[in-house]
Amino acid sequence: MRIVFMGTPTFAVPTLRSLANADNMDVVAVYTQPDSARKRGKRLVPSPVKELALEKGIEVFTPKNLKDPATAEQIRQMQPDAIIVASYGNILPKEILDIPPLGCINVHASLLPRWRGAAPIERAILSGDQVTGVSIMKMGEGLDSGPYCMQESMLIDKMYARQIDDLLADLGARMILNVMPRIAAGEVEWVEQVEEESAYAKKIEKSEMHLSPQLSALQNVRRVHASTDHAPARASICGRSLAVIYSEEADLSDQLVANAAEQMAPGQVARVNKKLLLRASDGVMEVTGVKPDGKKQMDAAGFCAGVHEVLKSGKATWEAI
């Protein structure tokens, strides 16, 4: 089966690797986002998908978008049976959608119709969803609105976005290998999405991840769990601007923690029983991992050692940035 693959971030890498390694798949080309300046010195860095494609000896194309008719003609000349997409980042125009006889098949990180769009994992966490998953769908002109033929789910539990992203990426890679031969044989049932059940997972703005004592402890913890390198959960703790990497609601079964929580006002910080506690509007969150600006990631003990005098004074506070 001749495949043109389109994808960009690490989420798409397992799918491309599975397709490239499969005996019954021939990945004839990869389309990915152009190299971007993502590191110090603004050095151009290729996408994770491009790196893998070059390693596998697959031809790579990096157009800014797919609107140029020459791009459609280029793909048409490749005669793909299917175009497989995983978190590409560009809209496919109808001229390209109509090229492959098996359609343009998307590996999407949500249980459609819930969370169509760019940030399904983050939106699921922020909304308190208990379950997420992967949908294999046929792309149309609408945003993630086409029918799906396969879905598999997993519990979100207390996982972080980066953990869920890895798990769903591997799940999607297994699913696409399983389903493509069945799509080719006409053995799948395409299920139309129920529009009334859809939700839009718009791109996360950095300000949405800022932590604040005015929010509930649960809201703050969800922001930490949904944070990414692009939009980290940030706050100022004991006068230090930082990203909060790990956090949970405080365990009030610990009597020392429960007693301290009763005495703390929103915006206060305490070190209790070796735990770094932040009082939010309605409760307390425990911070276990941070990355102060300009420094390496550290655990709560390492951070507390650097602000020991502030914590000892009993006047330690935290605030939104």
The CATH architecture term of the largest domain is 3-Layer(aba) Sandwich
The number of E-state strands comes to: 18
| Low-pLDDT residue intervals, each spanning 5 or more residues | none
In round numbers, the mean pLDDT is 97
- The share of residues in extended strands comes to 25-35%
Q: Tell me the helix content.
A: 25-40%
* Structural domain tally: 2
Record the SSE blueprint.
Elements: E1 2-7, H1 13-21, E2 26-31, E3 36-37, E4 44-45, H2 48-55, E5 60-61, H3 69-78, E6 82-86, H4 94-97, E7 104-108, E8 116-117, H5 120-126, E9 131-138, E10 148-155, H6 161-184, E11 200-201, H7 217-226, E12 234-237, E13 240-249, H8 255-263, E14 269-272, E15 275-279, E16 284-292, E17 298-299, H9 300-306, H10 308-313, E18 318-319
Parallel strand pairs: 1-2, 1-6, 2-5, 6-7, 8-11
Antiparallel strand pairs: 3-4, 7-9, 9-10, 12-13, 12-18, 13-16, 14-15, 15-16, 16-17
Helix pairs in contact: 1-6, 5-7
Describe the structure.
With 321 residues, the protein is of the alpha/beta class. It has two domains: 200 residues, Rossmann fold (3-Layer(aba) Sandwich); 114 residues, Roll (Methionyl-tRNA Fmet Formyltransferase, Chain A, domain 2), CATH 3.10.25. Helix content is 29%, strand content 26%. It contains ten helices and 18 strands. A seven-stranded mixed sheet has the order 5-2-1-6-7-9-10, with helices on one face. Helix 1 runs parallel beside helix 6 and helix 5 packs antiparallel against helix 7. The longest helix is centred in the middle third of the chain and has 24 residues. It is elongated and about 70 Å long. The protein starts with a strand and ends with a strand.
